[in-house]
Amino acid sequence: MSAVKFPSLNEQMDIIKRGVVEIIPEDELVKKIEKSLKTSKPLNIKLGCDPSRPDLHIGHSVVIRKLAQFQELGHQAILIIGDFTGMIGDPSGRNATRPALTLEATRINGNSYFEQASKILHKEKTKIVYNSEWLGKMSFENVIKLASKYTVARMIERDDFTKRFKAGEPISVHEFLYPLAQAMDSVAIESDVELGGTDQKFNLLVGRDIQREYGIEPQVILTMPLLVGTDGVEKMSKSYDNYIGISDEPSQIFGRTLSIPDNLIYQYFELATNVSNQKLVEVKSQLSNGNTNPRDIKRELARTLVTMYHNQEAAEIAQQEFDNIFINKGLPDEIEEFNIGNKKEINILDLIVLVNFAPSKGEARRLLTQGGVSIDGEKISDVQSSISVKTGMILKVGKRKFIKLI
Questions:
Q1: ω before 54 within 30° of 0 (cis)?
Q2: Alpha carbon distance 192, 343 (integer Å)
Q3: Cα 35 from chain centroid?
C-alpha cells in the first residue's frame, strides 16, 4: 500500500483557514499536520451531525464543505451520527429544553443526513459511525466517572445555560450530559480535529478537556460561521423559511438565491460554493465597483449553486425559467409575500385594499380603471372581477408595487 501524498503545510493551511472563524489552537493544528506529513498518516477529522432534522440546507453545507476540504487534502473524514445523543437533545443555542427523539427516529434521520451530505462529501471515503455504538454500552458507573471529570461551574458558563439559569428557566440535569457525551465521541474515535458552527464552540472545547482526562492528545477545534438566511436577518433555518435546501429543485435554488440581500453575495460564494480563492477576489472587486449590477453576480451565484447540486444544464434551464417569469414580465427579483389566509376567491378591489396597495376601494377603483392593475402579467380592467387565489400569484399595482400571494 503506497503512502498518502499530502499537499504542503502552507497549501493545507490556506485551504483549511478559508471562511473559518476560529482555530483553537492554531499552533497545535500546524504540529498535527507536520506530524501527518512526516508519518504519511491522515488526521481524523470529526463532524457530529444533528439527526433532529432530516433535510439539509446550504447553511448545513458550510461545515460539511469544510469536512470535504479536509478529505481533498487526504485526511480521514469521520461523520458521527448522533443517534444516541439525539435522545438527549442538544441544548446549544436554545432557551428551552429541546425535545428528545427515539433511537429509531434518529437512525432514520441520520441515514437521510448522510445521503444528502454525500452530495458534498466523497461517499466512499467517508467513515460513518453511530455514537450509540459506544455511548449505549456505558454503564451507570461509567457515566458517574465521566460526570466527575467536569464541574457544574464550568458547565453553567455556557451562554444558553447562563441565560436560562438567570431567567429562572428549567435546565434538566440530562442536558449537562450532552457536551460530555459529545466529548466521548471524540475519545472513541480519537479525533484530531473537530468541526462545528460557532454555536458549538463550548461543546467542542469540552471534547478537548475530556480527551486529556482519558490520556488522548486533545483535538483542535475549528469553528465555522452560521450562514445568514435569505431574509438577511436570521441564521438559515427551515423554522424561519429563509433557507435554500440542497435537495430543492433547480428552480427553487435559483429563485431563492436571487432573493438574498446584496450584502450576502460574497459570504455565500465564500462559504457555500467551491469557487477558487482567486474567484473570490474577483467577486469582491466586482461588488466594490459601482458600475457593476449586483444582480449579475447574484445570478452567477445562483447558477453555481444549482450546478453544484444538480448540473450545468439544470442551472441554464432554471435561469431561463426565472428570466421568463421575472425579467421578461418586468418583475423585480425580490417580491414581498402576503399571506392571504384561507380565502379562495376575492374581489380585485378588496384584494388591492387588503394588501395595503390602496387606502380605500374608491382609490383601488381609480388605479384599476387607469389600467395599472395586473395578476401574473394579465391586466385586470373589470372592477367586479373575482380573483381565484393561488399560491405564488403576483399582484402588480402601478409601476412599482408588487406582492406575491401565499
A1: no
A2: 57
A3: 33
CA contacts within 13 A on the Cβ side of 238: 10
Q: How far apart are CA 293 and CA 264, in angstroms?
A: 14
CA distance 154 to 172: 16
The radius of gyration of the chain's CA atoms, rounded to the nearest angstrom, is 26
The identity of residue 211, as a single letter, is: Q
Helices marked H in 73-200 — which ranges?
Answer: 103-117, 132-135, 140-147, 152-155, 159-166, 173-189
Half-sphere exposure of 397 (CA within 13 A, CB side): 21
Residue 194 · residue 204 · CB < 8 Å: yes
Residues 297-332: tens digit of each pLDDT:
999 999 999 999 999 999 999 898 888 766 666 666
Residue 80 burial class via C-beta count within 10 angstroms: exposed 0-12, middle 13-18, buried 19 and up: buried
Distances (CA, A) of 137 to 183, 231, 356: 16, 44, 61
Q: What is the DSSP letter of 247?
A: T
Interval 83-130: pLDDT, tens: 888 777 655 555 445 566 777 787 888 888 888 899 999 999 999 999
Expressed in percent and rounded to 5, the helix, strand and coil fractions of the chain are 50, 15, 35
Angle made by CA atoms 187, 142, 189, in degrees to the nearest 5: 15
C-alpha 199/C-alpha 63 separation (Å) is 12
Q: What is the pTM of this model?
A: 0.78
22-24 and 44-49: which strand pairing?
A: unpaired
